[in-house]
Amino acid sequence: MAVKVQFTFDPFEMAGVDPNDVSADVREEILSDVADFTLKSVLEDCADLKSPVTGGAFRKLSKDYAVAKKKQGGKPVPNLQLEGDMLDALSVKTKKTEVSLYMPAGKQALKADNHNKFSSESEGTSLPPRKFIPNEDKGETFRPAIRKGIRDIVKKAFEDS
């Protein structure tokens, strides 16, 4: 079964504005800017060893995994980077008034599911929770500073238009 690891949100709703109050070109520019900001923020948080969802630090690596990761050339820290494939696959897309942060289907989606615990298939897996994509079904969203950044992008574009 294909695993879907995705968070879709409406940045206009998040900012408390009506997207119809600006032109289609401005809406597209806002969505593009929010998508870029969202992906950059998530990747920066992961590099800083913290969750873009909770804002808290990722749990430390087990001693055995830290040693194994170091032997493979990785840093022995919980940054979701060993081979780099999973975070490199992380993507964003826009549609109408929405932005989606998602992991394309395949091996990386399964790893992302196992870290984010989106599906029942991920429960009980050996990968520790590392929330980097909010789970809408569990009422999750981005940490406050990311939400504020999104609102700021939208509100500035409305002021400038």
Q: What does this entry look like structurally?
A:
- The structure is a single chain.
- The chain has six helices and three strands, in the order βααααββαα.
- It is mainly alpha-helical.
- It has one domain.
- Strands 1-3-2 form a three-stranded antiparallel beta sheet.
- β2 (91-95) and β3 form a beta hairpin.
- The protein is elongated, with a radius of gyration of 17 Å.
Question: Helix count, per DSSP?
Answer: 6
Helix % is 40-55%
Poorly predicted residue ranges: none
Shape label? elongated
Alpha-carbon Rg, integer: 17 Å
Mean pLDDT: 91
What's the number of extended β-strand segments?
A: 3
Order of helices and strands: EHHHHEEHH
Spatial strand sequence of the major β-sheet: 1-3-2
Largest sheet, in brief, is:
3 strands, antiparallel
Report, as a whole number of angstroms, the end-to-end distance.
45 Å
* Count of separate structural domains: 1
Taken as a percent bin, the fraction of beta residues is 5-15%
Kindly name the structural category: mainly alpha
Identify the notable features of this structure and list them briefly:
mainly alpha; three-stranded antiparallel sheet
Layout of helices and strands:
Blueprint: E1 5-9, H1 11-15, H2 24-47, H3 63-71, H4 85-89, E2 91-95, E3 98-103, H5 107-116, H6 144-160
Antiparallel strand pairs: 1-3, 2-3
Helix pairs in contact: 2-6
